[in-house]
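$ run holo --ligand "dioxothiomolybdenum(VI) ion" --emit tokens
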Amino acid sequence: MTAVLAEELLGDPVDRVDGPLKVTGHAPYPSDVTMPGLVHAALVQSTVGAGTITRIDTAAALASPGVLTVLTHENTPALPEGPPSVVGPPPRFPFRDDRVVHHGQHVAMVVARTLEQALAATRLVEVDYAAGVPVLGIDNPQAQVLDNAYGMDLRRGDVDAALASADAVSDAVYTIAPETHNPLGPFSTVACWSGNRLVVHETTQWPMLVRQTLAAVFEVPESDVRVLVPYLGGAFGAGLRVGPHTVLTALAARTLNLPVKLVLTRQQMFTSVGHRPETVQRVRLGADRDGRLVAIDHEGTSTIGIEEGNFEPVTLTTGNAYACPNVATRDRQVRLNIPNPGNMRAPGSTEGNFALESAIDDLAHQLRIDPLDFRLRNYADVQPQTGKPWSSNALRECYAVGAERFGWADRDPEVRSTRDGRFLVGYGMAGVTFEWYQAPCQVTVSICQDGTARVRTAATDLGTGTYTIVTQLVAGLLGLHLARVRVEIGDSDLPPAPQSGGSGLAAALGAAISDATANLLRNLLNLVHDDDRSPLRGRQPAEVTAGSGGVHLTGDPSAGESYQQILSRHGLAELTASGRSTPNPEGTALAPAGPFAARFAEVRVDEELGLLHVVRIVTAVDAGRVVNRKTGRSQVIGATVMGVGMTLMEQTLFDHAGRIANATFGEYLIPVHADTPELDVVFVGERDRFHPVGMKGLGEIGVVGVAAAIANAIHHATGRRLRSLPITIEQLS
Ligand code: MOS
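-- output --
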């Protein structure tokens, strides 16, 4: 059995190459951008949860010092829509008519010479509403329900018959509160037109989608729109769609023929860029006496906004989680007068895993089988939905290595069996199977006459390490020191890259870079093919190795020359090659695998006081090759803390009018250091066979499985099965 990830697949723990720029304040975030003549926008948002605007009077605002314009639905032209993307259609554009569909909907944008003038004038915009009764509450019978509207329901075998004959059944309902992702950097747009050309500095995970969208909305060629985001202060899916605030800022800039800047406030972040929706799930599992799953039935219900199509795929990963002949999943959405939910780290999978892995634990407990053993008995040797062999799957190793580091074998399986003073001690675990996702990607790699390399691609770095791993990959493939690789990203004029999302970017870049560097080496060998002065004359790519700043015959470092030598002899300032990754899993013999993980949690519960301490979490992850063990680990520990927040604290609270009552960092609770358990992360597995350099995704899986591992540990400690997140003091005492 492969144990931990082989050393050669576990990349150096290089510090972030963009770190010094960031900590010295020299990295320009979109909200830092300024330019001559820049004016400032501020938003007015609806104070009712549903209805129509009956009067909107901007006279006082327009007369206020410094105010240049006020955009409302009354003076905004009908604009075409942007294109749909892999996460669905564009968000509903609120200035199309007089309707209000949620509290906090944008109803006016004020633009003034200074930010203070703009903010002051927002208070002078008078809006009257014919308020309706907002439809709120996931169980509201008045709400419209979408049933399999997105065609992702799944059925294999006969679930009902299998449940009827099962020896043990777990049948329960799980609820999770809505949550809001809060990247530190507030989302910002700076838009500047020169004639019909538009430059936008934008907080986004997806510059190419912003470019496509603004080109479609303003009916200009895509080549006339440039989107820049060299740095951004975090994003967990909020930057995967192009919000109305971006379109409005670009519209204001065009209307005024001045550069306009908008920075969303913290409160506006809660209503403008999505959140994790509230969910209710019912999971029914059946197993035989030997602990073999005979049926999985999973129904997920999530909330969605009015006239929105970006939905939560709650049951997405259920069908491939276990070898089970009878599986059915159903996803439904309930339309409410809420700001549209969106993608928040591992959307759907996070919630679905909590319900499924809690139910698995329940069933194992009923059958008196160790929960780890129960999962191994139902391990999916091949991808259950297709029957194809996985391109890689080290879930077994995740279980084994994680259990060993955690000390799982020492656990007394009886509930309420372990005490430490006034605390009941519990150990729980969860397994994670995650979806594969990758999108086409292009890069160029150049060798310059000074012996440095330059990489260009329109990807972004959320702060998670894209600059760093791109540097490492290119340096490794071209045999250069890290300091001699320059990475240019965050610009839609560069070769098209997909979103940093869906845990797909790193692997997409890895594949494209591997292609580009191979092309570059081939071009170099073509240059010297008939060159008598080169020791590499007439050689093929398979015969040479890149290293020490040049190329040499494999096995003979003395028979080679530096990139500089080759370029200068041929009078070239630089040599550039393109590379692309076009992952297409259709028709392949393998099932391209996403990452896998096992999580183990230890909790201490004081039942008298309802106190819960999560003491430690061990995570074993199979993400294929990990380019940088430090940024890779950081992804997992950051996401694990997010999972702890989800489990113990986070909830976006809507009041009876649909207003978010805790839209501040003071009132929306997230873990601080004192709430954070000891975190242990270990990478296991091997090179993925579907990917040219063996990588899989890593960005999202770290949040998945935390909630179930903690809830299962609480059950072990106390005998209570808690199925509602966040787990609060009331549930424990
Ligand atoms: Mo992530 S929700 O794919 O940014």
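-- notes --
The first helix runs from residue 19 to 23.
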